[in-house]
Automatic annotation (TrEMBL):
Signal peptide: none annotated. One of its GO terms (cellular component) is mitochondrial inner membrane. One of its GO terms (biological process) is ubiquinone biosynthetic process. Keywords: Lyase, Membrane, Mitochondrion, Mitochondrion inner membrane, Ubiquinone biosynthesis. This is 4-hydroxy-3-methoxy-5-polyprenylbenzoate decarboxylase. The keyword Membrane applies. GO terms for molecular function: lyase activity.
Amino acid sequence: TTSNIIMQRSRPLTTLSRHLFQKSNLRVFSRSFTGTSVTDQEHRSNGKKLYETHVPISNIERTVLTVASAVTALNDPYRGDMIATLGEATGRKFLASMRDQMLESSVGRRILRERPVINTRALDFDKLKRTCAPGTFGQVYISWLEAQGVTPDTRCDVKFVDDEELAYVIKRYREIHDFFHTLTGLGVTVEEEIALKWFEWAQTGLPMTMLASLFGPLQLSWSERKRLYTGYVPWALQCGASCQPLMNVYFEEHFHTPLDEFRKQLGITMPPQFHDK
């Protein structure tokens, strides 16, 4: 198939990208590529560590990182770490737009000020499980996590965003991804994840969401692509563009809100249902 041919031809590039992704190899390659030397001392003087997980890199290293992560992500859409890295390396302009949109909202400003975190250390999931009534946003969210066997603790750390506030913006975006699944009812099949990426692109404009939307379907069968483009994509673009900006939603304050009511508040419509899946 076309996707198999692409995967076979891209294997050497994937091996190269994994090699380049190591920090030391990034520097060696950038020096060889440009004929210049960037010592650790020079590198630190050009960019200090702005937050705990920050890895300052030069513009040349960022270019190499972008290519390496893009090649790997195209070859293997399941490499969430590479997709995350690509988003950090290419998304500054769009992250700034997301931040500006948050600043226009009183709730968004409060989120930026309070910096809530979504993981098992910050949230008492056992308490939520006991107190959230059936059909509430929190109950459905926790049931979804358990059914999928996932945890909010698995999100990649932000490393390559050279702005502390924008680093939080993309961190928040990653952490609320599972809430999008809960709100839309979409599962974690490749087909449904791609549909959700179209939804996220309509919401955020992040380049890596468009990349996943365009090249992810290469992994699908003909019938799956047909469902995607005739059903999911039109829904995702319309719903993502018309519903409230979800970065401005303090989800943690709505765990006890009935899910159907919460969807109506946000303007979320459900995706089409296919009985031949």
